[in-house]
Amino acid sequence: MIEVKNVTKKYGRKKVLQGVSFTANKGEITCLIGVNGVGKTTILNGIMNLTPMTSGEILIDGEKLTKESYEKIAFIPDAITMLPHMKIAEAIQFMKDFYNSWNDERAEELLGFFRLKKEERISSLSKGNVAKVNLLLGLALDVDYLLMDEPFSGIDIFSREQIADVFTSHLVEDRGVVITTHEINDIEHLIDKVVLLDDGTIVREFHTEEMREMEGKSVVDVMREVYRG
Amino acid sequence: MNYIKLLNFELSRFIKIYFVLIIITIISQLISTYSVAKNYMNQFNLAVYRDGISIEKYVEQFGQVSLMDLQHSGWFNLPIVIAAVTLLLYCFFIWYRDWLGKNTFIYRLLMLPTARINIYLSKATAIFLMVLGLVALQVILLLIEGKIFKWMVPANLRHDYSIMEYLANTVGDLYLGVLIPMNFIQFLIHYGIGFMFVFVLFTSILFERCFKWKGIIFGVVYALVSMSIFFIPFILEIIFAKRYLYPMELFVVEIVLGLIVTAMSIWIAHYLLNRKITV
């Protein structure tokens, strides 16, 4: 389980996150939703120790993040994380060199799934294909948790569909997924848990199934309530 | 093991520019050697065959040509300056290229399942190896340049130096005197200070990467404090106008202070990379 406990992040005097607490379980897809600049990416960066939090605690399976943790939690950011001049094959080799959890078979499967060619250079790829390469590099790791930052941002509808298909496949089965987005439509039906953020704080946290059963509301309905008042 | 992989990766990222530096150095210095030898022989031929000066008289008046004459050639010194400036700039570029622009490779580096200090150490080692590689190239080139002189200039018109003799004569030279020290102690002084400077610079860069604008001030202050610690014995000598230490004692104290500054830089970098770094 990923536990984010009372996390606060300040940039100078500006508070980006204020007392944020939530958990993300294995086998569940947890979605952090909020408008741009609300602190979603900061939370993911904080979980991966890519940005220091001002206060609070983040635990992965009850322990603080260490170098070994990167073998069981992967982050798929919304940007190229490999050198642009690298070929996809070289990026794969880089991951294979450093990660014991790298799964070659799954990498091959993902190459086929996304119809990517190994000899293509990352710099020559469309934004959609860059997002797919990022996903490939994260999903091919045998990790327990996956963090995805805006995987649908700025990409064409066909790529979005393909990426959404990943969530219903065995590729994320049994893993804990934390996904940030402000475009909920593509994955609304896939989400198990929602954390709504506004102005650096959590304004609502719920399980989608319970919300549907108990109050008869969809994620979008709750978002309308929260963000439109 | 991951440190070696990272080092290999860092070296491969610079290899093209490095080969360009090597080629520039080789071509430029060989041109320099050829042109110095050729000019000398042209002048010699004019003096002896046109003006009728005897060989002995010519040698007495103009001296023999040797590797030492290369030091005054721009073609000889220019690649050394280019390589030094390139490697100095690369000390900054080796960090900033991972953060700036579209490229966010720093995400990938910081998320590797290895101690983050390995990123710092591998970058530093890459710089050291590239510097030492160019120094080795320079020594080899001096041997080749000596051979070129032998092919182009008759024995009675040239003075042959062994590498050690040659280096003994370049101690005060701005470029070669610094680049290729005469003995191991000088090597320790020159490259020890150089490598310590790289560690201090890297830690200052990390201050900037961690604290942005404030980090520039922290970095500059850190560099000044580090240099002050290293030069304390000299500063005290200046302040009190008195020499407290014998040269050997001073040497040992400087080694200890250099190690302290280096260890401090690595320790602070370790802390910054684990606790303060931000992508």
Automatic annotation (TrEMBL), chain A:
Keywords: ATP-binding, Nucleotide-binding, Transport. InterPro entries: AAA+_ATPase, ABC_transporter-like_ATP-bd, ABC_Transporter_VariousFunc, P-loop_NTPase. GO terms for molecular function: ATP binding. PROSITE patterns: ABC_TRANSPORTER_2. The keyword ATP-binding applies. The keyword Transport applies. Residues 2-224 form the ABC transporter domain. Pfam families: ABC_tran (PF00005). This is ABC transporter ATP-binding protein. It comes from Oceanobacillus luteolus. The lineage of its organism: Bacteria, Bacillati, Bacillota, Bacilli, Bacillales.
From TrEMBL, chain B:
The chain crosses the membrane at residues 15-37, 75-96, 117-144, 184-207, 219-239, 251-273. The keyword Transmembrane applies. Coiled coil: none annotated. Keywords: Membrane, Transmembrane, Transmembrane helix. It comes from the Bacteria. This is ABC transporter permease.
